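[audit] Reproducing an earlier prediction to check determinism. Same input, same settings, fresh worker. If the tokens differ from the archived copy the diff job will pick it up downstream; this log only records the rerun itself.
[audit] input (186 residues):
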Amino acid sequence: MPWLYVPFFCSGFPALIYQIIWQRALFSIYGINIESVTIVVSAFMPGLGIGSFLGGMISKRGGVPLLATFGGIELSIAIFGFFSLPLFHAVGLHTSAAPQTVTALLTFALVLLPTVLMDSTLPILVAHLVRISGNVGTSGLATIALFAVAANTFKFPRSSDGHGIRGHHTQSLPGQAPDYRRQHGH
């Protein structure tokens, strides 16, 4: 049974990494200003709540194979993660000149489903562990502590001119996104 603590521990760490990478990728596409930060954070918050709610509902149903459900959700997150940056890039190319309302809705839509999936796994896995052992332990706290150490130790690379990840310009004036098409040769 201690082997079950490994997926419990490992499931939280990639979710936190994805959230940081997706935020930075979206900021590199749409720029960093108060509006874009608000949009990205506002897109993650409903995903957290909806995911936890749905995961809790699934975990309360009798007869649901919780470990298999957890595995399926984690696989879905990994597939989205694999395709997410090219997807964000393609969307950024097509929406760089779009009104802010359109980019806000697209950003919201891009991150809502994966955040719902990510945050549904915790109640499902906890319910499975409680079903088989009656004791959950402190693996979730260990994940948070390890992530905090890793985030502080391994910073995302910045270019020498102070721009964001991989040299993308990540700052703009309020209401203005960087010219994403020009930056990527389109």
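[audit] rerun output stored. Observation attached for the diff report: The two ends are 53 Å apart (CA to CA).
[audit] end
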